[in-house]
Structure formats: C-alpha cells, structure tokens
Amino acid sequence: MTYLLNDASAFAQEAVLGFAAANPQYVTAVHGGVVRSTETPAGQPALVIGGGSGHYPAFAGWVGPGMGHGAPCGNIFSSPSASQVYSVARNAENGGGVIMGFGNYAGDVLHFGAAAEKLRAEGVDVRIIRVSDDVASNTRENHRDRRGIAGDLPVFKIAGAAIEAGAGLDEAERIAWKANDATRSFGVAFDGCTLPGAEEPLFHVPAATMGVGLGIHGEPGIRDIPMGTAQEVADLLFEGLMEEAPAGRSGRVAVLLNGLGRVKYEELFVVYHRVAERLSEAGLTAVAPEVGEFVTSLDMAGLSLTLVFLDEELEQHWTAAVDTPAYRRGDLRSLDAHAERVPRKEFYTPGEEQVPEASSESQTAAASVQGLLERFAEVCATHETELGRLDAVAGDGDHGQGMVLGTRGAVEAGLKALERGAGARTLLVHAGTAWAESAGGTSGALWGSALTAASRALSDTSAPEEAEGVRALHNAVEAVQRLGGAQPGDKTMIDAAVPFARALQDRFQAGEGFSAALESAAAVATEAAASTSELKARLGRSRVLGEKSLGTPDPGATSFALLMTALAEHLGSLSR
Amino acid sequence: MTYLLNDASAFAQEAVLGFAAANPQYVTAVHGGVVRSTETPAGQPALVIGGGSGHYPAFAGWVGPGMGHGAPCGNIFSSPSASQVYSVARNAENGGGVIMGFGNYAGDVLHFGAAAEKLRAEGVDVRIIRVSDDVASNTRENHRDRRGIAGDLPVFKIAGAAIEAGAGLDEAERIAWKANDATRSFGVAFDGCTLPGAEEPLFHVPAATMGVGLGIHGEPGIRDIPMGTAQEVADLLFEGLMEEAPAGRSGRVAVLLNGLGRVKYEELFVVYHRVAERLSEAGLTAVAPEVGEFVTSLDMAGLSLTLVFLDEELEQHWTAAVDTPAYRRGDLRSLDAHAERVPRKEFYTPGEEQVPEASSESQTAAASVQGLLERFAEVCATHETELGRLDAVAGDGDHGQGMVLGTRGAVEAGLKALERGAGARTLLVHAGTAWAESAGGTSGALWGSALTAASRALSDTSAPEEAEGVRALHNAVEAVQRLGGAQPGDKTMIDAAVPFARALQDRFQAGEGFSAALESAAAVATEAAASTSELKARLGRSRVLGEKSLGTPDPGATSFALLMTALAEHLGSLSR
C-alpha cells in the first residue's frame, strides 16, 4: 500500500516537486513536469519522455545529459494532460524539434498527440515514438500495437544517446523506432499495487499462482499459472522472449531485469543468476545488463525481463554515457558538451502564450471564428442534458457537461486572444488549448486537437480562402482520427466526422462553394450520427473507447453533427 | 514476502553470484563475497565493507572506484563469517592495509573482528570502523555504541573517496570515524519484512500506527505512535535529527532519505518535499542529497532520514566521483587512476593458505602446540554432554557440540600444517581459522580469534620463550574481550578468562615459572567459572549474549576453565 501521503489528490504533484528539490543540478519543475535545469545546445532535438506517475525512475528520473530533455508527469497511472505535455515540450524545445516518447497506451497517445498538434501548429517539428515492447499484449505481427513496459528504458536511452551524439530529428526518430522494434519484454506479477489513499490493491493474484503478462498500471497478468521457483520464472521469461529473437541477430543483447516495486534486489539477482546461464547457453552476450528497479508500478510485486537485440549502432548508443538523477553510466568525458553545465535561467510558464502580430484581415476573420465559438457554446448548452443522457447509456454521462465546459473555455480564451489582437490562426490555437483544459477527458482532448489542427490551415496574416476552410476542417478530422485511434464503425465521433470530411471535400471539389458544401456535409454528419444507434460495436477494435452498448446514437458523433450544423448555419448567415 | 527463490538456504549465495554476473566490469565473486574485478593501485588501503545480505545496494553494490574494494556478503541479515570476511579482505588487500567498515551489530563486530585478528597475525594492518548512526538505539553520549543503519552509505562513501584521493590507512581511518561521528539517522517502520522461504513477516506494526526507530534487520521500531501524514513523518524525522545538530555546524549537510524496500520512490519524494522545506527553514543547505533505496531490509515498509553535518573535508569526499554498480556520481575524470581499468587476473581462494618457512625450533614448538590441541579435543569430547546441558538452560544447547567440532577442526588443520612444515605461529593461525569454521556460532568465532591472537606472540623462527607464552594467552583473552564485547559479570566466557589472565600475569611477574603460574591461573579460572552460577546477569549489559538465566554455571566460562586446566596439565607434563 501507499504509506506516505498528505492528500491523495496532490500526491503526484508533491512527488514531482520533491523530486526536483532533490535533484536541482539535473532538473527544474515547470508546469506539467520537469525539464533539464542546464542549457542544451541550440538546434538539438528535445527528447520529451513521459507518462503517468507511479513508475519512478521512469520517466522524470531519466532527464539529463545523454537521455531525456524533459518529462511531463501525469497523475498516478494517468497520462499527463495535453497542456502538461505541451508545457514541458515547449520548455525543452530548443530549435531542433521534439521527439515525444511514451508507452503505447490510449491516454498517452491522445494527450501527447494533442500536444504535438499544438506544437506543430506553432511551427515545431514533432515526432512521436510509442514504445511497444510487451510481448504479452499483442501478436508478433502487431508489435507496434503492443503496450510499452520496461522497454521504455532502453528505447529512450538509445534515442537520447543518438541525440547526444549529434543525430538530427529524422535520424533520432529512425534510431528510436529501430530500438523499439529490437526490444521485447515479458513479465509476471505476484500481487497488485495500491493507489495512494486506497485501502485495497487494484487486484490480487490468486495464492500460489502468478499472473503472466503483467502491465505496469496495476493491470494483472493475462493468465494465471502456478507459482514457479526463481529458476522457472527466469526460464519462462527468457523463453517467451527468445521466441521472437530475430533470425539475423548479432548475438549481443542489452538485458534489463526490472522489478516492479516489491520484488527486491536480492530476488532479482537470484533470477538473473539463471538468466545469465540461459543467455550463455543461447550463445548471447549480455551487453551492460541492468538489474534493478527501472519502470515500477508503485508497490506492485512482479518483474519483467527485457532483451534488446543489438546491432552495432544500437549497442553504441546503449552503452554511451548518460548522467541523469536515476540513471548514470559510462565515462562522462564523452559528454563534452556538458563539461561545464550552465544553469538555465529562463523557463516557459503557461499564461504567457504568445500572440504573433496579425493583419487586420486575419483579425476580422478571428472575430468571425470567435462568433462561431460562441454559437458552439450555445448549442452545447442547449443540448447538454440530451448529450449526457446518450452518454449515460454506455459511459459516465458527462459528455454534455464536458462539451459545455469545453466550449465555454474556448469562448473565454478566444475573447482574450481577440483583445490582444490575435489573428484567426492564433485564436484557434488558444481556443483549442482552453477547450481541452476546460473539458478534460477524451472528447475535450480530441476537440482541442481538432481546433489546433484546423488552425494550421489558416494564417495570422491574410483572410482565409475557402480552400483553406476546407483544409482546416480536413485537418481537424484527421487529427481526431489520428489521436483517438478509432476506426469508422467503432461508434465514436469518427463515425460522423469521417463521412462529413469526405462529403465536404467531394462537394467542394465538385465546384460547390464552401458554404454550400459545408451545409451538405453537415447533413451527412447528422445522418451518420443518427445511424450510430444501429452500428454494432466492434469489440476490441477501438483502443480508446472500448465496447459501447447498442441502440442509442453515440454522444460524440451526435455532438459533432450538432456543431457542424451550427458551423454551416453560422457560415451561411455570414455569407448572406 | 520473498516471491522469487529456488532454495532458501542458497538464496544469499545465488544472489551474490547473480549480482556478480550482472556487473562483471565492477566485481568478481570470490569466497565470501565480491571484490573489484579491476586492478587497484599498489599500496592503496583496501576498504572492505559488508554485513548480512538483504540490504542491497548495501554493501556489494558499492564496490568500485571511489568506494569499496570488496564486500563480504553474509547470509540474509547475518554477519558474514570470519572466513568470509578474511577471504574478501585478503583478496582486496594490496599492500596498503585494510579498513573494515560495517554497521555496529554484535555479530559483525565479532566476525569482522576475528578476521581482523587473523590478518594482523599475518602482518596486515587492519582498522575497524563501526558505523553507529541510528539515534534511536542509544543516547547521544554513547553515539559510537549505536546501531548502524543508512549511515553506512555516507560513511563508506566518504572513506572510499578519501582513499581514492590518496589517504593512507591512518588518514582514511581518521576521516571515516569523523564521518561516522558527523552522521545521524532516524527512521520509522510501517510493516515488517519476510525472510526468504518464510510465510510470515518478522513482525507487524499495529494498524494505523508506525514504529519509531526501526532497525534494518527486521527489528520493529522502539515505540509505536499513531500513523502520520507524509509531512508529519518528515517533521518527526527531521526534528529527531536536529536535536543532535552540532553547535558549530557549517550549515551544509549531506542528506539521505532512504526507503527500506516497500515504501516507493514517489512516497519518498513527497516526504522529501517537506524535508527540503525544513532544511531551508533551518538555514541548512542540502549537499548532493540522495532520495531512494540505499540500505534496504528486504521488503520492509519504512524509511529513514540521514543527515551528515559536513565540514569542508567531509563535503569534498561526499561529493567526489564514485563509480560502482549501484552508486555512481560525479565526473569520473577525477578518477584518473581508473581511466584505463585493467581487469585483474589473479584472486585468492581459500585452501591455498601459505605456510611460511619455519625453523626447526619453531617446528618442534608447533608439534607441542598440536599435542595441546589434541588434548583440547579429548577434553571437549569428554565434557560434550555436560556443556550441552549447561547451555540448554539459557541457550540452544549446542555449546558442547560446538566445542567438539571446533577442537576437532583445529586438530585436523594443525596436522596438515605440521605436515607442511609449519612453525608454531602459523600452526596456531591455521588451527584458529579451522576452529571458527568448524564450530560456527559465537564461541567458535571467539575461540578461533583467541588462537589467532595468541599466535601473534609466537614466531615461526624461534622456540617460544616463557614470556611469549604469557603474552600469547594475554592476547587470546584480550581478543575474546574485544570481539565479544562482554564485560565481567555478564555471565560469559569472560568471567573465567579475565581473572585467569590477571592471575597468570601476576604470578609470572611475581617470579613463578610459566608452568606454575599457568597452573594457578587455571585454578582461578575453574573457581570463577563455578561462581558464574551465582552471578546475576546484568540485563542489557552484554551486547552479544543478552540475558542469561541464573543458577547454573555459564557453559562458555566452564569450557574455558576446562581447557586452561588441560593446558596447564599439558605444559606440566611437557616440563616434567
């Protein structure tokens, strides 16, 4: 259980502050997490690694020369919000773009993705690496759809070293994906962990058994088998990984034996004793093996074994020097850039969002966008109860409330931006951020990203052309699709958004004006949203939303149709 | 609990082997523990740090440049045996003498002390540092009689850095004691740990309370108080330490917040958040603070706070570079001696004990000593049952058996040494080692050390003088007193040994011959042993043996008297 806390709701934040207080030579706490406290070379890509709290030393413990540039720290086992990720990335970015690295979980995909949208809208090049090392969570063919567990360490270590060695964004992204594709982990759990303030663990493993294929967020194993000796556990994990050993392997592997929290060091060494035998029998050389706690899950009892099948390039970066609060290795002479660590003086804090100079044409367009946001807020207020009722069938019933809070937040932010002279593009970025923050949850993140993505089609210098309006809406839908990870038929907002975007583009390309095309597309969306009541949920297809009950329209698709209808009306009234 | 093991009795040994397998660039497993796998500079004092297993990263995790030279690894929570310590120290020693460092516990004092006796008998200068940082275990005035807990880390870190910086044995010993005297720790426990193979924890802390003043061997706290918030726990620990803050402090402190095993990192950081506030309010600057798991106690739930009140010298060594499997810090450029780490090729393994060339006079004396050992073995065999019966009153009844096994082992080793041409001194050293190994337990360690200490008065080159015989016995009794830590009246072997040694010296100085003086002294010992039946055990005085029941003679004192009587008879028969 968690013994030491003040207030469960403040636990993760206090932990970040305590961590930063203990490591001032490495990190500084900023909104949303930590970044390096020392200057980084201008033009160096920033490796921003993160996820929920409760996994220390992952991820904040790995911020420092040779590894991470910053770490957004979410609540316990929860993805950081898009604004947390954005804040940390903004702080870490120094002219070389951003590589975001996180374990492949729906929440992280969504929120890191939303932050990436915003950074891209601001002109920052962002690449995303989803670590997917857990062999128990999907098939070999679908390696990149697996969950990320302890493989976070070697993937981020290798990516960080590549950047330290001078890799640019493309090169660092390539190496990071290559590391991920060479990395396999497999674990077992013996008992669950307890969230701060909770009385009971998230799960128990039945006595005398162990859960094979654990997760790192308190997920129990995928199946329970009889408890084994240390040697049997070592054999199980080793054999599970060797099934996926690549044919052309070099014979050299990075090895990580990771304790989840309550399995102690001596136990890990007893297991490693056997792992070393098996490696040797298999003709494999362990390169700089690591045995200890690297990616924990509070006080969960369990362990995982990770192998990275190395080639020369991966080995070079795996063994390179690194100097972070929780992970230090090698001869720091190789980190010449850091011989003199210069304390950094200035940090970005939210609330100082910039408003680039805008032309009067774009300011006029911004006022029109603001009018649209106000219309959105009215529509949501009108339909709040109905949307809540639809959501309550299969969800927690807060969709209506979320849409109201989100649109209200967007209106307020838009107003402020207008007062500061923002153009259309900047207004949309500010409104998108505020929507996500104010609404919270999945739909807030998706709508926030939609607005941010839409902004990229507009500018602060000229009035938007009709084609730009089409592209803005196309971008918005694409962002929702990319971030949410849902497919048409999963009974989500996508079921209305995709037909909408297709219809809009078809009509516009067929020569209809923007306003008319939009009106047709909104009608398509409305029909599609209604027909989600008949869609069969495709179980397991949607990573974000899971199973939905049948017979009622999806609330997300419904609200999308409502707002697109309002958009069409708003545009129609403007052009009249 | 311990989830991963093969065979509980092999657990600690398998852990050491696994640890060494995972860290070949740092350590090599030798009999009894690990030593550095790379060459050390000739003439550099060797820092040999250890204790029981179950405390990782203490102690093996700290072997490497800038810190330890070797670590004897005992069984879980048990001191390494004298032969383990000896083997590791022999391996680590490279012409500069040895500093032995361990937490101040009776078993460690005994076994490290016994190994030190043997090394000294071989001409190696050995210094002993007993870490005693736990403020809950004794008064401020008796700081050096306190237990050692997490203070092991800073004391050994500082001593290792001083050695790395070129300190000789005297200087390193001085700095190590200075570090110990500047170090204070205070802890609380929330739940006990479970030994490998056991079903139940060693203790439970009552619900909603915490045990203040925990030990690191599963000892519960000294008193239970209501469970506090993280902030209250931080305040309790901080205030407990600040009561002992030295008046002339520099305002700079090394800080260590140590988790015992099951309290996780995020919790420690929440506590540290408050500790940092308190340090700041108190005008103290935390120098290179450490928050994590450093001296664990298997899966015990608890934590401790350590402060080292630094001066310039201590700070220099605290912040110096170090590179070990579990503790790395600073810029390794300062470790120039280790720029090229040269793998070490040769290691000492027991069984190869040297037999220095001996004169025929000393060989004759050795044969006489061998005869005495055989007489000892006969006496013990004769009295085995009686000694067992005396021991069963207040002990585990194995004293008779231990004496039989010990003397038998000594006889066998003596015989082998004789065959290899050993002189008297070497024969006694070999016999002492074998006695301790064969007998095990406290009395085995004490008798083994007694023989080893006695040997220092003899030589391999000349026949012993009578005065040397007196000195040999004096040395033996002194070693027992020093290692056992008991005082006269504690109802131990000392109650017979001290009057014996005094009588021997008095009679010899009064002009009686050695043989006659010995006969008188043996009579004094016999009388003293008998009178231990009337001694009141002084509760709490004896650190080693604790309370003894009244009314029966102490078995240790009795066997001492028996053997000294046999010695006197043996010597008498030789001189006749």
UniProtKB/TrEMBL annotation, chains A, B:
Domain DhaK: 7-327
One of the GO BP terms on file: glycerol catabolic process
Keyword Kinase: yes
Limits of the DhaL domain: 367-569
InterPro entries: DhaK_dom, DhaL_dom, DhaL_dom_sf, Dihydroxyacetone_Kinase
Pfam families: Dak1, Dak2
MF annotations from Gene Ontology: ATP binding; glycerone kinase activity
Domain of life: Bacteria
GO CC annotation, single: cytosol
Keywords: ATP-binding, Kinase, Nucleotide-binding, Transferase
Protein name: Homodimeric dihydroxyacetone kinase
Organism: Nesterenkonia aurantiaca
Lineage: Bacteria, Bacillati, Actinomycetota, Actinomycetes, Micrococcales
